[in-house]
TrEMBL record:
Protein name (database record): SOSS complex subunit B homolog
Coiled-coil annotated spans: none
Keyword Chloroplast: no
PANTHER family according to UniProt: OB FOLD NUCLEIC ACID BINDING PROTEIN-RELATED, SOSS COMPLEX SUBUNIT B HOMOLOG
Amino acid sequence: MIPLKDLVPAAQNNVNTQFIVLEKGMTTMEGQNKACQSLVADETAAVHFQLWGAECDVVEPSDIIRLTNGIFSYSRNNNLVLRAGKRGKIEKVGEFKMVFVETPNMSEIHWVPDNTNSNKYVKESVVSPYSRIFPPIH
């Protein structure tokens, strides 16, 4: 299992991790599919997680989710999100009890191609330490 703080944008489905759902946004239609974005976290970081189709109806805040073969990449809206993708799978493994942090938010980091390896990305700067989609209530 990879901690969320170690996520790096990539084109392949290889993210195996576990997190708690903190917040869930409104469901929208993208073509013929339902989509909604959520804020998820583990004990190391937070990230925006894209839900598709029936996932939007069944995943709720406080659910603990295990993601297998997920992908961390840019969405159609050019937002950096974690998602199951076509080959990934999400599974509810618990609820309510999980240690988490809300910062850093891995979706709020500006990534650039690595000069030494064009297939990799490196952190260039932090856009915001928190989610701008789900701002903290302080």
